[in-house]
Design brief:
Elements lengths: L2 H4 L10 H4 L5 H14 L5 E2 L11 H12 L12 H15 L9 E4 L1 H13 L5 E6 L3 H9 L3 E6 L8 H4 L7 E7 L11 H14 L2 E5 L26 E6 L12 E4 L2 H13 L6 H12 L3 H23 L12 E2 L14 H12 L1 E2 L1 E2 L9 E4 L4 H13 L3
Parallel strand pairs: 1-10, 3-4, 3-5, 5-6, 6-7
Antiparallel strand pairs: 2-8, 7-8, 9-12, 11-12
Helix pairs in contact: 4-11, 5-11, 6-7, 6-10, 12-14
This protein binds pyridoxal-5'-phosphate (PLP).
Pyridoxal-5'-phosphate binds next to helix 6.
């Protein structure tokens, strides 16, 4: 049994309806397929997972060692240590221009993923709807369903930019929230700051929450700017759940620290949820995250500059091999189109991605995984040598 099917729960007897209908993360599934092939000795090149190939900075790792040496190894408050909440509040003020009370308006979670899930559980009653602009990171949609809600997919235009007008006609009496993810996973599109403000005002006018996922806020190129949804409009902070993580910014994917800031009542509910589910995130990782947020930030700039160089090189290479590929302004994903390729491949992205994996041993994620068709997501958070080799293989793929 492959790694992918072994954790696919559809056939197990007695399984809840909720989990029977939930597909595993398609990104993680694609990555598992690639690893299985690599174990068979195939020279697989991985552009699947959204994970910086940098090491966690030394000063952050040292903070973790210090925490262990100092015996900071016990349970902490479920919603995080006061020191990390304070560091998050300082960060939100310094970088995003909004003041949050660290004791009542910030909760630390096990990664951005858990922060998002907690938000959904806190907001949704059965049948409540959440507007999810597509293409979207599948997790948004699946977490809404897991929490008992209904994801309402809002198709974006060919430029994949969310505008407030796109939401018109999708709001019903059951709508509870809208997802804003800029820079976007999977497309790398950065919303125009004015549109983030417009979407937030639209949400406020309809009495719905904005779940703003700022995971990639530091990965910006070509002068693109990130707009924090809770800034820019009087009263917006009452309607915005701001989710973020140290995973990507500080190359800390394995440490599992994310957070959410927002209205007191919701944060209090999320904190209570933490007490009944995971309790606190790792005490050691929390102390490391304090150092990440408060310590020197040049490590972020170095990584982003390198990703910028890879982005330009990789997208130029994709175009040279015949893929139509928009230039992403953020995150670390290229989103080339596969339609009308000269290699005679089908337009169906799943089949295309499988062929690419089996024939060229290049692993990426089919657009279908993001409720889209005709594109692939390729992470360029891979070494230049890997990217060069991918481009060489793509040049001959299908010919
Ligand atoms: C848009 C987005 N949000 C949140 C996350 C979650 O990050 P983590 O749970 O590693 O903090 C990811 C990771 O891929 C992501 O792409």
């Amino acid at each position: 049994m492959s790694e992918t099917t072994s954790f696919h729960p559809r056939t197990a007897p007695g399984l809840s309806e909720r989990l029977r209908t939930m597909a595993p993360s398609p990104t993680i599934a694609a990555s598992a397929r690639a690893r299985a092939l690599a174990r068979e000795g195939k020279p697989v090149l991985e552009l699947t997972v959204g994970e910086p190939d940098f090491e966690t900075p030394d000063h952050v790792r040292e903070a973790a060692h210090r925490a262990i040496r100092d015996g900071k190894t016990r349970y902490t408050p479920s919603g995080g240590i006061p020191e990390l909440k304070a560091a998050v509040a300082r960060k939100l003020h310094r970088e995003n221009g909004v003041e949050y009370d660290p004791t009542t308006e910030v909760c630390i979670c096990n990664g951005g993923k858990q922060a998002l899930f907690n938000v959904m559980v806190a907001l949704l009653n059965p049948g409540d709807e959440v507007l999810v602009p597509v293409p979207t990171w599948a997790t948004f949609s699946d977490q809404v369903a897991l929490a008992g809600g209904t994801p309402v997919h809002v198709p974006l235009g060919p430029d994949h930019r969310l505008r407030a007008a796109d939401l018109e006609g999708h709001v019903t009496a059951r709508t509870k929230a809208v997802i804003v993810n800029s820079p976007s996973n999977p497309t790398g599109v950065v919303m125009d700051p004015a549109e983030v403000v417009a979407v937030t005002r639209f949400a406020m006018a309809h009495g719905i929450y904005v779940v703003a996922d700022d995971t990639y806020e530091h990965f910006l190129y070509d002068g693109a700017a990130h707009q924090f949804a809770a800034a820019g409009t009087e009263g917006a902070r009452d309607w915005v759940l701001a989710v973020n993580t140290v995973s990507k910014t500080y190359a800390m994917t394995g440490w599992r620290i994310g957070y959410v800031a927002g209205p007191k009542a919701i944060i209090k509910a999320i904190d209570a949820l933490m007490t009944q589910t995971t309790s606190n995130p790792s005490s050691i990782a929390q102390w490391a995250a304090v150092e990440a947020l408060d310590g020197p930030q040049d490590c972020v700039r170095t990584m982003v500059a390198e990703f910028d160089a890879r982005r330009r090189m990789f997208v130029a290479g994709l175009r040279a091999t015949g893929y139509a590929c928009p230039m992403p302004e953020g995150a670390f994903y290229a989103y080339p189109r596969i339609a009308n390729r000269p290699d005679g491949s089908p337009g169906d992205s799943d089949t295309y991605a499988m062929r690419l994996l089996n024939e060229a041993h290049v692993s990426c994620v089919a657009g279908k995984a993001f409720f889209d068709e005709g594109s692939l997501r390729m992470s360029y958070a891979a070494s230049r040598a890997v990217l060069d080799e991918v481009l060489a293989r793509l040049a001959t793929f299908g010919h």
